[in-house]
Write a structure and sequence with these properties.
The complex is a heterodimer.
Chain A: H1 11-17, H2 24-35, H3 46-61, H4 69-79, H5 83-92, E1 104-109, H6 112-116, H7 119-128, E2 142-147, E3 159-161, E4 164-167, H8 171-182, E5 190-191
Parallel strand pairs in A: 1-2, 4-5
Antiparallel strand pairs in A: 1-3, 3-4
Helix pairs in contact in A: 2-3, 3-4, 4-5, 7-8
Chain B: E1 3-6, E2 9-12, H1 19-25, E3 49-53, E4 60-61, E5 72-74, H2 78-93, H3 109-117, E6 140-142, H4 152-161, E7 166-169, E8 176-179, H5 192-196, E9 202-204, E10 217-222, E11 231-237, E12 240-246, H6 259-263, E13 277-280, E14 283-286, H7 289-299, E15 305-309, H8 315-328, E16 332-334, E17 364-368, H9 372-375, H10 377-388, E18 392-396, E19 407-408, H11 421-428, E20 433-437, H12 439-443, H13 447-456, E21 460-461, E22 464-465, E23 467-469, H14 476-481, H15 490-496, E24 500-504, E25 518-523, H16 528-532, E26 535-538, E27 547-550, E28 555-559, H17 572-582, H18 592-602, E29 610-611, H19 643-647, H20 649-659
Parallel strand pairs in B: 1-5, 15-16, 15-24, 17-18, 17-20, 18-19, 20-23, 24-25, 25-26
Antiparallel strand pairs in B: 1-2, 3-4, 3-5, 6-9, 7-8, 10-11, 11-12, 13-14, 13-26, 21-22, 27-28, 28-29
Helix pairs in contact in B: 8-17, 8-18
Amino acid sequence: MADRHPEPDSPELRARWGNFAWTEANAAKAKEIITRYPEGRQRSAVMPLLDLAQRQVGAETRTQGWLPLPVMEYVAAQLDMPIIRVLEVATFYTMYNIQPVGRFHVQVCGTTPCMLRGSDDIMAACKAKGMKKGHTTPDGLFTLTEVECMGNCASAPMVQINDDNYEDLTAERVTHILDELAAGRQPKTGTQEPGRHTVEPAGALSNLTAMVSENHDYRGEW
Amino acid sequence: MPKVKVDGVELEVPQGATVLQACELAGKEIPRFCYHERLSIAGNCRMCLVEVKPGPPKPQASCALPATEGQEIRTDSEMVKKAREGVMEFLLINHPLDCPICDQGGECDLQDQSVAYGRGASRYHEHKRAVTEKYMGPLIKTIMTRCIHCTRCVRFSEEIAGVDEIGALYRGENMQISTYLEKAAEHELSANVIDLCPVGALTSRPYAFEARPWELKKTLAIDVSDALGSNIRLDSRGREVLRILPRVNDDVNEEWLSDRGRYMVDGLTRRRLDKPWLRRDGKLVAATWAEAFDAVAKINPGSSVAVIAGDLVDCETMFAAKKLAGALGSTLLEGRQTGLAYDASNLAAVNFNSTLAGIEDADAVLIVGSMIRDEAPLLNTRLRKAVKKGAKVFIVGPEWDPTYAATFLGDDLSILGNLPQALVDAFEGASKPAVILGGAALGKGALGAGLAFAERFKLVRDGWNGFNVVHMAASRMGGLMLGYAQDGGIADLVAAKPKMVISLGADEVDFTKFAGSMIVHIGHHGDKAAHAADVILPAAAFSEKDGTYVNTEGRVQYSEKAVFAPGEAREDWTILRALADALGVTVGFDSFDQLRAAMVAEVPALGTEGLADYGALPAAPSDAKAEGVIAGYPIKDRYLTNAIGRASPTLQRCSAELVHGETFAEAAE
């Protein structure tokens, strides 16, 4: 986080991204997004448009996608808003990548529940694959980031890779997932625990047992 | 009108007031950093916490809490004291303790408030955050590690200046204030963020390490960089004015000042005329005062004298020169140096009648031939407020960026005779319509057409006068009141072929037209007029003399003397008094007080501070017609508009970097 900063403005960056424009499909989508907001409030569309732009850049570069400055300027121009306001948004939200990332953006959750359930091992397994926090592997496949809670505490530990979550991980499971991704296959998303579907209790119900069949007021029992 | 109780004292507060304002009305001091009465409420510094009942049992940010009926507010409870101490401790976590090398020291809100409301010691032992330097241009020096993220600068740029350049990047502890790609802040009011910054994160670059506030003598003065007459404070030490700061005057400049007015200060010590000069064999040579007066006496002009007043002179100087010319038998006085020749017989027709504060209420505005951001920067902030309240603005003239929504009607003045329907609709439906004529319009003779426009749409109605002329010279309205106007403008002076032309700092005049005249220049800078002069009599700049100024809305204001003029330079009126002796006439005053009394006797309006009354607007001439294309605006370089500005290295750099786009290598630090 501390060294998060936009890719510096350079002639190369301008040459590569200076004439960024929506693809036909995205242009239509951008238009549709803008119409979601009331007249005069079009600036509110900045977040979905930045996301769309990031995905288009991702499609062009076969990565998760990121936001070069000229692309932010393009979005700013479309919404008729000052570029500094767009940059504020893009730098505030960490899901906008403001520097190039690899094909798979591996976001390891390191917040307390995941940490207690072994996120250190997950991180170590990722590092064993040659990844380094905040960096992209030389083959351009993986970018490793440690993130805060992603809301999957019931199936901790977890990683988010691009748009998918992988939960109930162990070092072996995450290694397998990374291998599959590197090989160009799509591993099973969601929980990796055999027999588990989502975040239902692993094994037997351990608490709130009286709530299974009907509503129950526990307050008198506290 | 809700009734609230502040520390046990019941009082009534205006509808819509915040708890903080209620506390202030009750005479309680509420510490704050992010709150500023002229900016929107941010509520992010948390320093203004107070205890409010009814409400949650925790301290509340008073700046963002509306005062409501029956509130009990405590600013003196243990909870409030602890809350303030806690907030202050958090603010100081990442704030460097570099007050001894900080330019804000001595006038720093954080310093003052940590003494008054802080704990006195820190419990923080970890590393402090450090932030890289940000470049914000030649005027603003940044030490962003000191920033406490109040976002006043961001809000000022967006709301007052209307130029979204400063933003808060990143989040939380990593938040940083920056311009996009660290470009220079380049609007005409950028340096006001220095005053707004409650800490030493944004300080004045030219003033860096110059002085401590307690060493400075403060003198109340009037800004002469434009015709608005912004109220300023001259901070001087010894014989040098070190900086210029705005004073609060809600009727004129609120509490802002244009960059030009603020930074021409270092021009006051450069390129000064500090001794008399005489032209001998085509070359200027230094002389003594006695030689200079001999030279003037030798011209022996009789009544063939003309006086041209410059843009920066005060009324007393103009009046003294008028008396001198009068004693010699001449009435050839002119102040409109660049050849403007509008009819000045009725001053109401060349005045900003809506007043600067009043124009905020206008709901339809037509600007003809004025690039307001250059010509009267703080008028533009008023127009911005009017637009925010719903005013429609139309502009005739070459396009410029007004920072608010405006409709450009092209640069052909003939459109005034053939108004577009949208404008007619807007003005017919408006309750406070206004027209603003600028120098470019006056130059094309559009004054009559403006008056006709005022008649057609009844711009003068009960409690409202919407006819406005915006001038660019600090001396203009005063000069017009003192009769510095010929029917044909300066061309009348040229045609009269005077033997002697007295220039009162008239640096914008084309003196080649006065080739046959002896030019006596009473001025303070070695600028354009000095090059053409035959006799140079060194005079005082605005900071070196008492004086009366009248701003473009006809507001009479007094400026005081901060320092003495350098070298052998003297105050202008003493020079003119001595000239009278040299030329063997009497002007009827021997002291400044006598001079001012004589001036007030002749023009009583100059004797009372405040708006002068110029009476009713004249009828529009029946043949009023505007034609011609406004090719450009008079100000080509907004930083170098007068002799002081042109001598100022800071403004020269601003001009080179911000107007002409030169790049300067930053010294490695």
